[in-house]
TrEMBL record:
<protein>
    <recommendedName>
        <fullName>Epoxyqueuosine reductase</fullName>
        <ecNumber>1.17.99.6</ecNumber>
    </recommendedName>
</protein>
<feature type="binding site">
    <location>
        <position position="299"/>
    </location>
    <ligand>
        <name>tRNA</name>
    </ligand>
</feature>
<keyword id="KW-0846">Cobalamin</keyword>
<feature type="binding site">
    <location>
        <position position="202"/>
    </location>
    <ligand>
        <name>[4Fe-4S] cluster 2</name>
    </ligand>
</feature>
<feature type="binding site">
    <location>
        <position position="195"/>
    </location>
    <ligand>
        <name>[4Fe-4S] cluster 1</name>
    </ligand>
</feature>
<dbReference type="InterPro" id="IPR011989">
    <property type="entry name" value="ARM-like"/>
</dbReference>
<dbReference type="Pfam" id="PF13484">
    <property type="entry name" value="Fer4_16"/>
</dbReference>
<dbReference type="InterPro" id="IPR017896">
    <property type="entry name" value="4Fe4S_Fe-S-bd"/>
</dbReference>
<comment type="similarity">
    <text>Belongs to the QueG family.</text>
</comment>
<keyword id="KW-0819">tRNA processing</keyword>
<feature type="binding site">
    <location>
        <begin position="244"/>
        <end position="245"/>
    </location>
    <ligand>
        <name>cob(II)alamin</name>
    </ligand>
</feature>
<feature type="binding site">
    <location>
        <position position="251"/>
    </location>
    <ligand>
        <name>[4Fe-4S] cluster 1</name>
    </ligand>
</feature>
<keyword id="KW-0560">Oxidoreductase</keyword>
<dbReference type="Pfam" id="PF13646">
    <property type="entry name" value="HEAT_2"/>
</dbReference>
<keyword id="KW-0671">Queuosine biosynthesis</keyword>
<dbReference type="InterPro" id="IPR004155">
    <property type="entry name" value="PBS_lyase_HEAT"/>
</dbReference>
<feature type="binding site">
    <location>
        <position position="192"/>
    </location>
    <ligand>
        <name>[4Fe-4S] cluster 1</name>
    </ligand>
</feature>
Length: 394
């Protein structure tokens, strides 16, 4: 059989085998350098729009042969994830809840995709034992989306997501660089057209243009930071504990899309939409037991606790005052005390105000002092009638 036919046949067989390997979509891209992406990444960096979670070496990001000398093709895989909870628990006064983004539901996707890439690698090695392969998911050097786009998995949405015609943007991506000369697939022809819904819906204006994100203003990034959350985002974070799904939820292509193909991805509602109050006193051991399986745990418990404190302020949950006062008085972490001060200022009332005044006498951290001062001013000012605040994405 001529060589070209052999590789085409292997690719077709691989695609036919995908469902049995637990993969929802496979595409093949050439391993040529990503020249357009390179320019884009340079501009992105110059404008200070990186999150800091990206691979910093732009040569490695855009030249697959630096990772695998002799690289010829990249196999891109996509796995669809669930978007809806069965019997979601209610978030209501006295029992308010936070929400994890769908990308953190079920088992950590890094592990799930690594498992599928291992299945695929074994499948290839049975047929081409000498194949050279380097697999990666998220934390690898390449841009998973740019690879997927070139491999015909989907189009690059104005919300930055890779949108597949079959599963919308609710897909995780991973890839393997190989030295197999598999014939590349064609990019998909669909696009966002003149729709701008996601750009208009982004709560922080982080989508500065179609497909252009200022990551430092993106709530998904901000929920993962460990320091004080800047004031301008404290209300906007709503009840998000990890990640943000707004620009995907509003996308018309995603309407009604929900797949439960993978057992490991099934969400536990009490984990992905947890009660906020118990999070304030959760121990390391309990945190590990409850969230350890989720992709949301990678930054530890501090960001999630900080976000829970802010969410209680956003809900203006009066029943949370004693616990917020305890955090303000006792928590050794300034970010937690500062956030508790902010939330007490939002909730207001005599008990909150008294605790803030008392804390102002003792607090030694300058930033927290500032938070307390602003919170006292807020809690002392006349306030509009209270209303029941709605949850964010849940
Ligand atoms: C850093 C990072 C983040 C940062 C920055 C995100 C960003 N948009 O840059 C933060 C923390 C904010 C983040 C958030 C999220 N992330 Co993230 N993240 C990454 C990571 C590690 C690198 C992304 C990166 O390099 N960005 C830099 C930009 C410039 O490049 P890019 O988005 O990769 O590539 C696109 C652009 O360059 C664009 N492009 C190139 N040329 C041109 C030219 C024109 C004219 C235009 C318009 C566009 C364009 O097209 C490329 C392909 O789509 C990837 C994993 C990886 N290794 O790739 C995951 C990844 C992108 N994240 C993912 C997910 C799921 C998310 C969230 C949805 C999670 C959540 N629910 O909170 C949000 C979505 C936020 C958003 N609107 O993008 C998935 C995306 C899956 C998908 N279907 O697209 C990835 C691929 C992880 C994975 N393996 O599944 N993430
Ligand atoms: S993830 Fe949220 S904050 Fe980030 S771009 Fe999308 S809507 Fe905006
Ligand atoms: S909301 Fe509209 S513009 Fe945004 S990603 Fe979806 S289709 Fe594209």
């Amino acid at each position: 059989m001529p060589d070209a036919d052999r590789w085409l046949k292997l690719k077709e067989e691989m695609k036919a085998a995908a469902p049995a390997l637990g993969i929802d979509k496979i595409g093949v891209a050439s391993a040529d350098p990503f020249l357009e992406l390179r320019e884009r990444l340079e501009r992105h960096r110059e404008l200070g729009r990186e999150s800091g979670f990206e691979e910093p070496d732009l040569d490695k990001r855009t030249r697959p042969e630096l990772t695998l000398p002799g690289a010829k093709s990249i196999i891109s895989i996509a796995l669809a994830y669930p978007t809806k909870l069965r019997n979601p628990p209610k978030s209501e006064p006295g029992a308010y809840r936070g929400i994890l983004s769908r990308s953190a539901w079920g088992a950590d996707y890094h592990q799930v995709l690594r498992n599928r890439l291992a299945n695929l690698e074994a499948w290839i090695r049975e047929r081409v034992p000498e194949a050279r392969i380097v697999s990666m998911v998220d934390t690898g050097v390449l841009s998973d989306r740019a690879v997927a786009e070139r491999a015909g998995i989907g189009w690059s949405g104005s919300n930055c997501s890779m949108i597949t015609p079959e599963f919308g943007s609710w897909v995780y991506l991973g890839e393997m660089i190989t030295d197999l000369p598999l014939p590349p697939d064609k990019p998909v022809t669909e696009s966002c057209g003149d729709c701008t819904i996601c750009i208009d819906a982004c709560p922080t204006g982080a989508l500065v243009g179609p497909g252009e994100l200022d990551a430092k203003r993106c709530l998904s990034f901000l929920t993962q930071t460990k320091g004080h959350l800047p004031d301008e985002y404290k209300k906007k974070i709503g009840n998000r504990l990890y990640g943000c799904d707004t620009c995907q939820i509003v996308c018309p292509v995603n309407r009604g899309i929900h797949f439960e193909f993978h057992e490991e991805m099934r969400p536990d509602p009490e984990v992905v939409k947890p009660l906020l109050l118990p999070l304030l006193s959760i121990s390391n051991k309990e945190f590990k037991e409850k969230f350890g399986r989720s992709a949301a745990a990678w930054r530890g418990k501090k960001p999630i606790q900080r976000n829970a404190v802010l969410a209680l302020g956003n809900f203006r949950d009066r029943t949370a005052v004693p616990e917020l006062v305890r955090v303000l008085r006792e928590d050794p972490r300034p970010e937690l005390r500062g956030s508790a001060a902010w939330s007490l200022g939002e909730i207001g009332g005599e008990e909150a105000l008294a605790a803030l005044r008392e804390a102002a006498e003792r607090e030694s951290d300058e930033v927290v002092q500032g938070e307390i001062g602003r919170a006292i001013a807020k809690a002392s000012a006349p306030r509009p009638k209270r209303e029941h605040k709605k949850a964010t994405d849940g």
